[in-house]
Amino acid sequence: MGKHPDLAKQSTLSDINWGYRWLDTHPSDPRSKYHPSTWFTRGAPAPTMPVPESPVMESPTHTLRQLLELVPPEEAPYVRTHFERFLLLVDLVGKWAPASAEIANIGLSPFDVLAKEIRGWSNYFNVVSGPLMRLGGTKPYSHLNLIEYDLTSAQSEPPRQFDFVIFSEVLEHLFADDELVMHQVGRLIRSGGRLLITVPNAACHRNRLRLLRGINIHSSKSDIVQGVYGGHGHVREYTLSELKGLLQKDFDTEELFGFNTYGTPLQRKILNTLPDSFAFTLVAIARRTDGHLPRRARQE
């Protein structure tokens, strides 16, 4: 599960921060014509599955502008900050999900607008519950296919299952036992289906430097209790080994790596030469094991 050999050799394109800084300073850069699927090269072989049928995404500059026009103005800072992560999610779905896959995203975020309105994913759903609705705040998502399912309760039954589930930057906000949450996530996925999960890295280079300077890396109790980001703050962040351990019981991990979303192009180049354990974000693709069946299916 070590560092993928191509990760440190990504092209200059993948090192560019496609957020507001790049958009403001390079609006006519000719390199923006390249398709985003070429920016994320991974060492692990891609599965022999067709790419989901959806419109070809425009250049990142155009896509970012489209997304900013479609989301509420108060969401613009979040979109600019997380846009590169959004592109990574799109790329990984294209590599690992079958063409006819029913895809579910746990939670609510501007990524849903990118998936539904710009990418045109028709078999796309959002799984929400009380805690996840708080994360979504008052965002106008009435046009989405919403499915209610409580990941924090062992008594909650999944109303249906999916071929591919996205669980990105949500686990760290849930005030619940991680093993229970991951078990509930697994029950949403059909046998042989896949999970795409991303979490913040507690051992990223920034946190290591903060600790050396005597700065606490954890969210304050006020942030956790009163809520930030529309819900709980970062109740818990994770290390590479912890994420691997969380997936072991209910999933077979097929890909595990670090991803650097933030920073200048030069900072990202330097960070991409470091081990995955120093990255800002941890990313995993995992297949649900055959023995992981919903409670109803086991009883039948």
Describe this structure in words.
This protein is α/β, with parallel strands linked by helices and 300 residues long. The chain has a single domain, classed as 3-Layer(aba) Sandwich (Rossmann fold). The protein contains twelve helices and seven strands. The chain has helices at 12-15, 20-25, 60-70, 76-96, 111-118, 130-136, 178-187, 205-212, 221-226, 240-248, 265-271, 295-299; strands at residues 103-106, 124-128, 146-148, 162-168, 189-200, 251-259, 281-288. A seven-stranded mixed beta sheet has the order 3-2-1-4-5-7-6, sandwiched between helices. It is globular. The model is unreliable at 1-54, 134-138 and 292-300 (pLDDT under 50).
Task: Jot down its keywords.
7-stranded mixed beta sheet; 300 residues; 16% strand; Rossmann fold; disordered N terminus; alpha/beta
In total, the number of strands is 7
- The CATH homologous superfamily name equals Vaccinia Virus protein VP39
Task: Tell me the overall shape.
Answer: globular
Structural class: alpha/beta
Query: What is the string of SSEs from the N terminus onward?
Result: HHHHEHEHEEHEHHHEHEH
Distance between the termini: 37 Å
Write down the CATH class: Alpha Beta
Q: Give the total of domains.
A: 1
Bin the strand percentage: 15-25%
| Strand adjacency order, main sheet | 3-2-1-4-5-7-6
DSSP summary: helix tally:
12
Instruction: Return the CATH architecture.
Output: 3-Layer(aba) Sandwich
Give a short account of the largest sheet: 7 strands, mixed
Mean pLDDT: 77
- Poorly predicted spans: 1-54, 134-138, 292-300
- According to CATH, the fold-level topology is Rossmann fold
